[in-house]
Design brief:
Blueprint: H1 2-31, H2 33-40, H3 46-62, H4 64-78, H5 80-100, H6 104-107, H7 110-140, H8 146-174, H9 177-182, H10 187-203, H11 210-217, H12 225-230, H13 233-267, H14 273-287, H15 289-301, H16 303-328, E1 336-349, E2 353-364, E3 369-379, E4 386-387, E5 390-391, E6 393-400, H17 403-424, H18 427-434, H19 440-456, H20 459-472, H21 484-500, H22 503-506
Antiparallel strand pairs: 1-2, 2-3, 3-6, 4-5
Helix pairs in contact: 1-5, 1-7, 1-8, 1-10, 2-3, 3-7, 3-19, 3-20, 4-5, 4-7, 4-19, 5-7, 5-10, 7-8, 7-19, 8-14, 8-15, 8-18, 13-14, 13-16, 13-17, 13-19, 13-21, 14-17, 15-16, 15-17, 16-17, 16-21
Length: 512
């Protein structure tokens, strides 16, 4: 038994490391979306550039179901191990090349086109990776403990995001702001190739899962996994239930807590980028152990109500949580200690002329400070550049918080991470247990990646659009409008899951 546990930990370690790296590769694009918007898209319309970057980010999610179909079929026919070795190399190569792609200023339209293609390759790779890793670990796990053991794989997505934030923060710390803006943002992308190589060396020595080897030895592997998975009405019923009763709700809760929250802090609260990343990182670190706790809990009480509880809490409390977040940096409710405590004026040369930069800093009695920057764009003759008949001036404000406000924001993000652990901790075991071994990789991967890739992956772009549209209409609480998307999806999923998921599906079917 001790030897079996030792083998299982090796399996989890090798699977988790590779999956963690793939999530790291996938998330640095989202984490750096604000910066990438200025590198791969025209700079004359920052809002459009940011939305285009989010759309490119979402494209990687949209294509994930196709990766699930392609690699799921391979995984059910030739084996789990070799399939997610291929996905690892594909993901690492695409990420490395994003870091090498010239900017829009250098090659124009080809820059966003190349990045889009590479982003699609990332999505295809991730579509095949997760199902393989989750299936592989589940097929090694002892009976009655799949929730616990597969929950370790669930931590890799959060750790991947956490590590991406750490690498970005360290890169920013070691470089000047100008160096990071010029070339330093490429470092997190390029570093991934070294991590992928280490994971490859570990994974290549792994054995195939015992359940798949037994099925192969008995001649019970699928000859046409796609037809057997989706052409069979009985199995298709479980695929649809997995999607609409669990995966789509899990997807929107996951991306609200980890991506919409980050975007909200930076683009609505105007929080300093490094501070927002650090706050999210702290909340992730505090919340990650609960993936394992919730996975183990699902072994005891069943997967269904652990997951549905997370969805219910999310749809009931998202608006109050984000209202509280917004008020932390709402300057209209704060008292200034001084009108201006610091001011500076500098001029820097650009390719088109020069920029006059005027900066002021305000402070408030609760420890909040705001850095206001106004840039006047001049041509080579030092004459203001005109836009729409007026001098071209750009302005931005960056907020820095401290003390109780800092702790409060960490707590509000942490609560959202707890919701994620409830829905995400048990879902790998839940999906694995729904399907027989010969079509498991294919059958579980598709609903998972539609739920996460389509419903979850579109969340940043859809929610940002809803909030922007509400702002254009003058709605006072425009900043909460983007939450209607995850709230409605979670509500629909909760109702379907509560009615149609039975105990036999989520607990006793694990020994099939």
């Amino acid at each position: 038994m001790q030897n079996n546990k030792k083998t299982l930990w090796k399996v989890i370690g090798a699977s988790s490391l590779g999956t963690l790296i793939e999530w790291y590769d996938f998330f640095i694009f989202g984490s750096l979306s604000v910066v990438l918007a200025t590198k791969f898209f025209p700079a004359d319309n920052p809002t459009a550039a940011f939305l285009s970057t989010l759309a490119t980010f979402a494209a990687g999610f949209v294509v994930r179901p196709f990766g699930a179909l392609f690699f799921g079929r391979l995984g059910d026919m030739i084996g789990r191990k070799y399939t997610f070795m291929v996905t690892l190399m594909l993901m690492g190569g695409a990420t490395f090349l994003i870091g090498c792609t010239p900017s829009y200023e250098s090659i124009g339209f080809f820059a966003p086109l190349i990045v889009l293609v590479l982003r699609l390759l990332q999505g295809l790779a991730l579509g095949g990776e997760y199902g393989g890793a989750a299936t592989y670990v589940a097929e090694y796990s002892p009976k009655g403990e799949r929730g616990y053991w597969t929950s370790w794989i669930q931590t890799t997505a959060t750790f991947g995001l956490f590590i991406s934030l750490v690498v970005i923060l360290l890169t920013r710390f070691l470089l000047t702001e100008q160096q990071f803006d010029d070339w330093g943002w490429r470092v997190p992308f390029v570093l991934s190739i070294f991590m992928v190589y280490v994971s490859y060396l570990i994974r290549k020595n792994m054995d195939e899962s015992p359940e798949f080897k037994q099925a192969k030895a008995e001649g019970k592997t699928a000859t046409n996994p796609l037809k057997e998975s989706f052409g069979n009405k009985y199995n298709l019923k479980f695929v649809l239930l997995a999607l609409f009763g669990a995966a789509m709700g899990q997807g929107v809760v996951w991306y609200t807590g980890q991506f919409y929250s980050m975007s909200f802090m930076k683009t609505v609260m105007f929080l300093e980028s490094d501070q927002a990343d650090l706050i999210l990182g702290i909340a992730l670190l505090l919340g990650t152990p609960f993936f394992v706790i919730c996975g183990k809990l699902s072994d005891k009480v069943g997967r269904k109500w652990v997951m549905l509880t997370g969805m219910l809490l999310a749809l009931l409390t998202y608006r109050p949580i984000y209202e509280s977040m917004y008020q932390i940096t709402n300057l209209s409710t704060k008292t200034e200690t001084a009108a201006v405590i610091a001011a500076s004026h500098t001029t820097i040369e650009t390719s088109d002329g020069m920029n006059e930069i005027h900066t002021t800093t305000q402070s408030f009695t609760d420890g909040t400070s705001v850095k206001n920057t106004e840039i006047t764009h001049l041509d080579k003759n030092k004459t203001p550049i005109l836009k729409d008949g007026k001098p071209y001036i750009t302005a931005k404000s960056v907020v820095h918080i401290s003390g109780g406000n800092y702790a409060k924001l960490v707590f509000l993000i942490f609560i959202q991470i707890l919701y994620i652990t409830l829905v995400y901790g048990p879902i790998a075991a839940f999906l694995v247990e729904l399907f027989p071994v010969q079509i498991r990789y294919t059958s579980m991967s598709l609903p998972y990646h539609i739920g996460n890739g389509i419903f979850g992956g579109l969340l940043p772009a859809v929610s940002t659009y809803l909030a922007s549209n509400a702002l254009s209409k003058g709605q006072a609480d425009y900043y909460l409008s983007g939450l209607w998307y995850p709230i409605i999806i979670s509500a629909v999923c909760f109702i379907i899951g509560a009615i149609y998921i039975t105990k036999s599906m989520s607990v006793t079917k694990k020994d099939q």
